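To: structure subgroup
Subject: Chain for Friday's discussion

All,

I'm putting the inputs and outputs inline so they're searchable in the archive.
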Amino acid sequence: MPFPAAFRILKAGQVAGAVMLVLITAAASALSAVPVEPVPDPLPDSNGGRSELTGGSTGQCGSEQGPAFWIVSTECSRQSFDRSCPVFRPQVTFVRRCGHRRGIPFRQMLQSLRPDIPICIKVHGSFVSREGIIDEGHITYRWLCSAACGAKMQLIHFTWPSSRPWLTPTIQCDVNILGRRAARNGWYLAELIRHLPPGTPVCLIGHSHGCRLISSALHLMGGGRVQGHAHPGARRNGRPIRVVFAAAAMRHDWLNPEERYGRALCVAECLMNFRNRRDCALRLYPLRHPFSGHSLATSGFTTRDRRRLKSWSRKVAQYDVTPLIGHGHMWPNYVAHRRLARLIRSYVYFTDRFPQTPASGAQASRQATAPSTTTGRLPVLAAADDSRQSGIPTDTAAARLADSGQEQVR
């Protein structure tokens, strides 16, 4: 390549990096200013009488003691696999509504998980501080509980070293480094899922680079390799796994067969992708490096992707959140809308597999607009005008709730 052309490409990359840094900094500074829709406190737990950290109400939506969840951190786990194999050294923190937190052994958390209640694992994106993880865990818990309608789940917040690396000249270097780090931590997420109670359904919710981390974990669980490493002990083994992506910072074609995470969808029962065509941070995603494709968040699954997915396309659904989120990218932009929590209710609570506690009053009215599923069929939501072209069941309540921008991958 001639030197002037290479210089122009480098110059354009530096300008794009500076613009991206400004956008991300502005979004981070406005993080606390995002209005979060008030959510009523969850219902008291009907089980009662169970001691702390021995199952019962701890970490479950519907706890009489309010939001409680676990944080599993990989800060002490190896972050470089170049010269050594991955070693999972989880640090577990139990967080209560009052702000009290304390470290507990990983084995104690596993013993306190109930196998008869679904587990939801939330994975954050890049540039999230330790205190931000606590706040994000609280708002995520309350957001998901706003659509519970008597159902229960256990929340684990999976955190990885996502702070900005030192001594990097441009923001696109940071993004590339953190993207690779997120994929590397997918090995640890697969290891965490392997240790969960056998057969317990798991919902994986990813934001930004957290979607890439989840895709990496599912790819490993499907028998694939990530950065030269496999994880033969983390096979799915029949565990139901459902996935939700928000602001997915990964290429739109990486879930296709033979691509980077081509075995991820063979592990997941279904996947909901929130598409935002005006995401300010990911509009610049193609400028990370030459010949980089568009992100899954902005372009969604394209027509070519749908053809390459073949039968797996029945597992994937998309919902256009552009009218709701606009130029936003941060997680609080999503949890500010309870309708999105209702849209993914079947993904989080597995309502087609678990009996539901009768709801009354305000909860009953919310239940009338919550998505329902048919037993034995995947809970993928379809717009009313897509039902004739898709083998996936159409949910009429969800169709009433959905905007005209909802798109079913078919």
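Points worth raising on Friday:
The chain has one domain: 3-36+53-77+86-350.
The chain has a mean pLDDT of 76.

D.
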